[in-house]
Specification:
The complex is a heterodimer of chains A (405) and B (157). Chain A is built from seven helices and seven strands; from the N terminus they run αααβααββαββαββ. With 405 residues, chain A is an alpha+beta fold. Chain A has a domain of 160 residues: 2-Layer Sandwich (Heat Shock Protein 90), CATH 3.30.565. In chain A, the strands form two sheets. Chain A has a five-stranded mixed β-sheet, with helices on one face. In chain A, strands 1-3 form a two-stranded antiparallel ribbon. In chain A, β6 and β7 form a beta hairpin. In chain A, α2 runs antiparallel to α3. The longest helix of chain A is centred in the first third of the chain and has 174 residues. The relative contact order of chain A is 0.05. In chain B, strands 2-1-3-4-5 form a five-stranded parallel β-sheet, sandwiched between helices. Chain B has a single domain, classed as 3-Layer(aba) Sandwich (Rossmann fold). Chain B is of the alpha/beta class and 157 residues long. Classes of the chains: A alpha+beta (405), B alpha/beta (157). At the A-B interface, α2 and α3 of A face α1 and α5 of B.
């Protein structure tokens, strides 16, 4: 405060000194008083001046304040407006940024789509090429197919020709069968008849050796006759028509038993027969099958024990039987013929079904080796199979599987 | 009607079989008369000629030249005058189908020629005995065809 007043006092004194009225005389006494008044007057003037100045300043200040207030007001208005404008700007910026971001995404998408389009175009190019290639291949295949068709047509023609030839050949075979049944047997039978006449009528004139030789001749001729008979039976089974009919299998086996009753008695055989039902069979062929199997079982019975044969039936599905020749899903009529005879070594189980296949010399067991071949053929004529299992001296088992429809 | 002698006609082209047949009849000591023809045409001529009497029985072979046994059998059974003649088929072979056909055609019996002469003789004896006894017991001189199961003659032991 003191510091501020000092320059003001110097300034006021200068103004007072300049305004001293030269007409005013001041005495000494008066001088002191005069000085003090003077100082007071100066001080008052100074004060008035200062007041004046102050008022002026105050007025100016008021004006300035008003101006300032107005300006502040304006400033606030502007500031408010600016705030709004800023907000708007910020909003617009934000929107712009959003749009920009969206645009970036859209651009990316567009770029991606362009890319994809190019890819597709490239793929289309490849696909078109591929198609063209496939068309070419198709035409090639079509051409090959035409050739294959022609070949097939030719083969069909050939097959028909072969079928016709086969029919002719079959007829010839039947004729041959008849010829062998008649013309081959006739001279043979006559040889046998003449031998019996000689043995009867010339008995006294023959030496023992001569008689023996004639007997051997008779045996050989007899065997040949049996062979021809069996071969005939085999070819008949192979060539005759196949008429399936409901067949009472038990009845058929009773007939076979009646036919074999002498042998059954001789072998002291027991034949146990289960309930066999009435399947669809080629009756006369199945009768022969059962005859061959039963007579086989009797023939190859074990001489040390009474023969025992058991015949049973059951229905099975192909998959229940371990045999690849059967269809897994099909139903089969399974007939089992089991005996306690001399059996055979297991490795012969296929071979015994071959034509002329024998396991024993003809001096031990007579026979031509055709019986089981006939049995197999008959099973095949029924679209079925036959399998044999055996063990030496422990018997043989024959399993026949016939489709049940 | 009582028979003094059985007239037999044998139709067979085989010389040996004819010898066996005649020899069998000789040994059987039967009152028979045998006429032999060697082919089917001669057989039919013989049966249809006016001056020869019909035999009592015909033994017919199937395989013959010119006309076979099947044809002859059919002609005989279709001919009114001959239909009653008992025809016995005498054959080397045995074929069930053939046998059935012969039965249907009206043959009397079927015999498969045995290979032993003794059997040959016996089956002829058995057959002739069957025919003669049926002829004797039947006034009309006709013999009925047997049942199918008796058609094939087998040797009675």
């Amino acid at each position: 405060m003191e510091k501020k007043k000092m320059p003001q006092k110097v300034h006021s004194q200068t103004i007072i000194e300049a305004s001293i009225d030269p007409l005013v005389t001041i005495n000494s006494d008066d001088v002191t008083e005069q000085k003090w008044v003077k100082d007071l007057r100066i001080a008052n003037i100074e004060l008035a001046f200062q007041n004046n100045e102050k008022e002026k300043r105050a007025a100016e200040l008021a004006i300035a304040n008003k101006e300032l207030a107005f300006q502040n007001n304006e400033k606030e208005k502007r500031a408010t407006e600016l705030g709004v404008a800023n907000k708007e700007l910020a909003f617009q910026n934000h929107e712009k940024e959003k749009r920009a971001a969206e645009l970036v995404i859209a651009n990316k998408e567009l770029a991606f789509q362009n890319d994809e389009k190019e890819k597709r175009a490239a793929e289309l190019g490849i696909a078109i090429k591929e198609l063209a290639f496939q068309n070419g291949e198709k035409e090639k295949r079509a051409a090959e197919l035409v050739i294959a068709n022609n070949e097939l047509a030719f083969q069909n023609d050939e097959k028909e020709k072969r079928a016709e030839e086969l029919i002719i050949a079959n007829k010839e075979l039947l004729a041959f069968t008849y010829i062998s049944s008649h013309d081959l047997q006739e001279p043979l039978r006559k040889i046998q008849t003449f031998i019996t006449i000689i043995l009867e009528n010339e008995n006294e004139n023959l030496s023992e050796n001569g008689k023996y030789n004639f007997e051997r001749m008779q045996l050989a001729a007899g065997r040949m006759q049996q062979l021809i008979d069996d071969l005939l039976a085999f070819s008949r089974v192979a060539t005759t028509e196949l008429n399936f009919e409901k067949t009472n299998l038990n009845q058929i086996i009773e007939e076979v038993k009646a036919e074999l009753k002498d042998t059954i008695h001789e072998k002291q055989a027991t034949i146990e027969i289960g309930e066999l039902g009435t399947p669809n069979l080629i009756a006369f062929q199945f009768r022969q099958l059962m005859y061959n199997l039963i007579s086989n079982a009797l023939k190859f019975s074990n001489p040390e024990i009474p023969s025992y044969i058991i015949i049973t039936k059951r229905m099975v599905k192909g998959h229940e039987v371990n045999n690849e020749k059967l269809s897994k899903g099909k139903s089969y009529f399974h007939i089992k013929v089991k005996d306690n005879g001399i059996g055979f070594e297991p490795h012969f189980s296929e071979r015994i079904f071959g034509v002329f296949q024998k396991l024993h010399g003809k001096e031990v067991y007579s026979g031509t080796g055709i019986g089981l071949a006939i049995v197999k053929k008959i099973a095949e004529n029924h679209n079925g199979i036959i399998a044999a299992t055996g063990e030496l001296k422990k018997g043989a088992t024959f399993d026949i599987y016939i489709p049940s429809n | 009607m009582p028979l003094k002698q059985l007239n037999i006609l044998l139709a067979d082209d085989d010389v040996d079989d004819c010898i066996f047949f005649k020899k069998a009849l000789e040994e059987l000591l039967l009152a028979t008369d045998v006429t032999v023809v060697n082919d089917g045409e001669k057989l039919m001529q013989q049966l249809t000629s006016k001056d020869s009497e019909l035999p009592h029985v015909l033994f017919l072979d199937l395989n013959m030249p010119r006309k076979n046994g099947f044809e002859c059998l059919a002609e005989i059974k279709q001919n009114e005058k001959l239909a009653a003649l008992p025809v016995i088929i005498f054959s080397t072979s045995f074929e069930q189908g053939v046998v059935n056909q012969l039965y249907l055609s009206g043959a009397q019996y079927f015999i498969r020629k045995p290979s032993e002469f003794e059997q040959f003789k016996n089956i002829i004896h058995q057959t002739l005995f069957l025919i003669a006894s049926q002829l004797a017991s039947n006034k009309t001189g006709k013999i009925r065809q047997p049942e199918k199961e008796d058609f094939v003659l087998v040797l009675v032991k």
